[in-house]
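Justification of resources, computational component.

The compute hours requested in this renewal are based largely on the per-chain cost of generating structure records like the one below. Each record pairs the submitted sequence with a full structure-token output. That output is archived, and it is also reused by downstream analysis tasks.
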Amino acid sequence: MAQNVSRNIISEFVITGFDTLEKPVAVGIVILTVYILVMLSNIANICFIMLDQRLHQPMYLFICNLAIVDMLYCTSSCPTMIGVLLVGYKTISYLPCFVQIFAFGLGFVMELFTISVMAFDRLIAIVNPLRYHSILTNSRSVLLTFLLWILGSAAMAIVPGTLLPLPYCYSSLRYMFCDYAAVIGTTCVDPNPYFNLMTTLTSFLLFGTFGFISVSYFKIVIVVKKMTSKGSKKKVFSTCFSHLIVIVCYYGPIFIQIVVTRIGLNLTVEQYNGLRVGTILGPSLLNPFVYCFRTKEIRNKLLRTISKVEPDE
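The structure output for this chain reads:
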């Protein structure tokens, strides 16, 4: 049972989300391995793009941004989980906990924004290909990305901001790291209004971005249906396929988690934690490999780096 304390005494929280695991070290090794792969693969993608002048184009700048977001999303949560599982370090100080809430929320929001802006990029490239490079220049792409980071940071500042003034009665966090749901459960107030606030904000961002992506691809489908050349249709499909995989892999697990919660399916703590870890690590690991092997320019750059031989065109 959580220890009852006053807010003035709380200087750190205790993470108890993994207490029921039978083999915490094995789970920790898996998370650590996947986390290292996420970091290395995303750093490699960024390096391939930044070091090749030919890849300094809007689409690849957005891929770089997605890699940065993936690393932020994982780094905001994984080191804490790894510390708990492998080292047994279960405490986190008050202020770092709130920084983690902000960073994790920012990673979540920027994933949504980045995937959406990549859909916008594909829409312009396919619907108006002749004006693509004049509409979406490198400078405009960087400016758009910068504005999205500002918007995401402003939106997520609300999250820890609603928690800071609250009185705290407990020091134990029921989940795997410092997220909103875990910390609100340690307060002395009725958590329902705060849960409703976060549900409203999350739903607006999640379904708003998904709606924008859906409309973008609906317009793309209309353009493709009017094409008479099979080669053109195949090229469009090849152009969009990588992005579609990313959309499914990111939104799919989140929607599954929402459905499971809404229908009242009772999950064990281990099952819930496993689903949560999957929604964090899965897309972040898959994204760089999708763009590495599905994007011709990055794939060829990788082959040249490995073999030092120019690949056949």
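The beta strands are 12-15, 91-93, 172-173. The radius of gyration is 22 Å.
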